Amino acid sequence: MIYFDNAATTYPKPEKVYTELDIANRNAFNTGRGSYKSARIASTIKENVREKILNLNNMNGKVVFTCSATIALNDIIFGMDVKEDDYIYISPFEHNSIIRPLEELKKRKKIHIEVLPFNKSTWEPEYEKINDLFAIHNPKAVFISQVSNVTGYLLPYNLIFELSSKYNSVNVLDASQGFGVVPIKQYSNISYVVFAGHKSLYASFGIAGYIKLKNDKLNKCIFGGTGSDTMNPEMADDLPDGYEAGSPNIVAIRGLNVSIDWLNSVNIYEHEVELTKYLIQELKNIEKLKVFIPVDNTKIFGVVSIGVDGYSSSDVGTILDDEYDICVRTGYHCAPLVHDFIDSLLYNGTIRVSLGYFNRKEDIDCLIKALKSL
After folding, report:
1. How many whole angstroms separate alpha carbon 71 and alpha carbon 281?
2. How far apart are CA 108 and CA 28, in angstroms?
3. Which CATH code is given to the segment(s) 15-263?
């Protein structure tokens, strides 16, 4: 099997992660709920992983663990102190884990959700228009992906956040697709960074979270036991304890602990940059393909979407699977706005080829040969 669905979840994981998950499953002890040695060790590992998450980008902040990036985004969206007629802005590249909670918030709070203008040729934000929008309707919050899960586009989030910060906006960077691999070099204008363990962190499902970088108010959405301050019927206000109700997934946390150590020992970024360039170069040589990339394709990382003339995206995915044992993702990829933006509706979405550390150029050669046969 040749696997090109790393944007959904990276596969395979490093062997040491599988080993640690097996050991952890056989020795799973709850954290913060026992004074015996094994429970104390589990708690120590959890706190160490928080530090490792911060150290990946030399950040200073508070790490809150959740079971998925979707839950992390819900915690932020419904925890923000929004009021009726507030304006929240998103890019056309956002995932339903942002769009759907915001639509629900719109029903509850009667807020406004606006899509930021981007140039359809260059894919660059139209900064003057954005600046005007912010001046007319001040942003309560802005949500931007670090890397598009559909196109691999590296969004220039810092420039947008710089504009929105003038209005004390809550700026949320959804780094689910690249955290741990794609550096976050500047974060002075970011309020929250969301990460997902099972993607570019090469850990398992069941562990994700967010990093709180600003001191803005965040209301709690989930309530229950935390293992601390038990006699108090109200949730604690401190972070992370007050925002992590329930037993943490210590098995997945232990897997993440090992995967971060592995990440620090390899250079995935340069490997994926090289593979992405090679993939785009080879795809562009096939006439019947539509490659969804901007004018400057150096801003594409790890993910490339294509369409094949005369085929729906799902038909191509089935052929690649049945005849060549090649795994790609097809359709709309839980990101509805981007398909109108890149004009992929004609193909019923895109055929998404997403790369990972364990892919090689030989895998891409097999894909190219298969696509040429269509």
Report:
1. 37
2. 40
3. 3.40.640.10
| Contact by Cβ (8 Å): 257, 20 | yes
As a whole number of angstroms, the distance between CA 169 and CA 189 comes to: 9
Omega within 30 of 0 (cis) for the link into 92: no
Question: What is the spatial distance between Cα 259 and Cα 197, in angstroms, rounded to a whole number?
Answer: 9
Strands, E, within 49-186: which ranges? 62-66, 87-90, 112-115, 139-145, 170-174
* Domains in the chain: boundaries: 2-10+267-372, 15-263
CATH of 2-10+267-372, one of 3.30.70.420, 3.40.50.2020, 3.90.1150.10, 3.40.228.10: 3.90.1150.10
Residue 64: beta bridge partners? 210
Q: Which pLDDT tens digit goes with each residue over 268-305?
A: 999 999 999 999 999 999 999 999 999 888 999 999 99
Q: Which residue has the tokens 């190219």?
A: 368
- State the average pLDDT over residues 146-167: 98
312 pLDDT band, cuts 50/70/90, is very high
Point out the least confidently predicted range of 76-80, 154-158, 164-168, 212-216.
212-216
Give percent of the chain with pLDDT exceeding 90.
Answer: 86
For residue 71, how many C-alpha atoms fall within 13 Å in the half-sphere facing its CB?
18
Residue type, 186: Q
Task: Tell me the C-alpha to C-alpha distance, in Å, between residue 216 and each of 108, 200, 206, 239.
Answer: 21, 28, 27, 12
CA 128 vs. chain centroid, Å, equals 27
